[in-house]
Amino acid sequence: MGAVLPNSYVQGILTASLYQGSLKSVCSPLLNCYACPSALFSCPIGTLQHFMVTGNVPYYGLGTLSAVGATVGRMTCGTLCPFGFLQDILYKFRAWKVSIPVWTRYFRYAVLVALVFAIPYATQENWFSKLCPMGTLIGGLPWITLNVNIRSMIRSLFWVKIAILLFFVTTSTLVKRPFCRAICPLGAIFSLFNKSSFLQLAWNPDTCTRCGKCQKICPVDIRPDRNWTNPDCLRCLDCTRCPSLKLTTVFHQQPFGVPGASPAGAAVAGDLSGAAAR
Amino acid sequence: MKGRPIAFIVTAVSAVSILAYGIFREEIGEVMFNAAML
């Protein structure tokens, strides 16, 4: 749905033109390139960069992202983001699987500060957009296919963009969501809200057997039973198939009821065996 | 855990205030113009 809905301006592909209607004033909470011929909404990261390039504070863009983050945390990354969905599909390919260290998460904050705020402000160029693999995939490549004039404008930067896209396509077959975990500046913004967002993940220590199957099905390879407000958590809710984890709200103090109120026999350990084999 | 509802309310009010200020500054028009002029 996240891939189709924001890119449903089919006329743009048929006529090789950009949608210029009022919906383009809305920043979608997804990494979705607004240079894509079928894009209906604006890219939030492109919008932030545009305001930095013009020397202004992006109140509208930051306010939109903060409002979404305060409500659902990183849930749009886990449920709607088209580039995240692509990485999930690529990881299903049979290949040698590796895990990346936790400290790589800090790199996405560096990307946010450097490539979205500082360098665009200093150089007056949208540097993240110039290198974004999602922009290459749904913006650059369709335009080169549709428009001969744009094809003649290809320079060395285009091949750098292709190399970056190929790097993430390849690594996505080996590592769970490498771009989301280590690079995505939109994910970096939303992850700041995971601890205080309205929607929260709740964990029940009384029923959890610490089997670790939640980590096997987690698209970012984390243990929700160890830290259920982890900034890496995408709130995809795959782990809530286990009865020890559930979606709740920040106002719910006892999401699993009063401890000890249920009979011991009713404490069902999470059965994620079917999901883990997925 | 008990501080989280307060943290949420503070965050939500701040987010809506920033968004409202952005709308007041008519940034929506600039966002649309930027997206249309790519």
Topology:
The complex is a heterodimer of chains A (278) and B (38).
Chain A: H1 10-15, H2 44-53, H3 59-72, H4 75-79, H5 82-91, H6 105-123, H7 127-131, H8 133-146, H9 148-151, H10 156-172, H11 178-182, H12 185-191, E1 199-203, H13 213-217, E2 245-249, H14 273-276
Antiparallel strand pairs in A: 1-2
Chain B: H1 4-24, H2 27-36
Based on Cα principal axes, name the global outline of chain B.
Answer: elongated
Total helices of chain B: the number is 2
Average pLDDT for all residues of chain B: 90
Measure the end-to-end span of chain A. 21 Å
Q: What is the total domain count of chain A?
A: 2
Report Rg of chain B.
15 Å
Q: How many beta-strand segments of chain B?
A: 0
Average pLDDT of chain A works out at: 89
Cα distance spanning the termini of chain B:
45 Å
Query: Helix proportion of residues of chain A, in percent?
Result: 40-55%
> Strand-and-helix sequence of chain A, N→C?
HHHHHHHHHHHHEHEH
SS class of chain A: mainly alpha
* Helix/strand order of chain B: HH
Strand arrangement in the largest pleated sheet of chain A: 1-2
Strand content of chain B: under 5%
Query: What's the story with the biggest beta sheet of chain A?
Result: 2 strands, antiparallel
Counting DSSP E segments of at least 2 residues, the number of strands of chain A comes to 2
- Radius of gyration of chain A over all CA atoms, rounded: 20 Å
Q: Helical segment tally of chain A?
A: 14
Largest interface, C-beta within 8 A: A-B, 35 and 29 residues
Question: How would you characterize the overall build of this protein?
Answer:
The complex is a heterodimer of chains A (278) and B (38). Chain A has 278 residues and is mainly alpha-helical. Chain A has 2 domains: 44-191, no CATH class; 198-253 and 267-278, no CATH class. Chain A is 45% helix and 4% strand. Chain A has 14 helices and 2 strands, in the order H-H-H-H-H-H-H-H-H-H-H-H-E-H-E-H. A two-stranded antiparallel sheet of chain A has the order 1-2. The longest helix of chain A has 19 residues, at 105-123. Chain A starts with 9 loop residues before the first helix and ends with a helix. Residues 263-270 and 273-278 of chain A have low confidence and may be disordered. By secondary structure, chain B is mainly α. Chain B has one domain. Chain B is built from 2 helices and no strands. Chain B is elongated, with a radius of gyration of 15 Å. Chain B starts with a helix and ends with a helix. Classes of the chains: A mainly alpha (278), B mainly alpha (38).
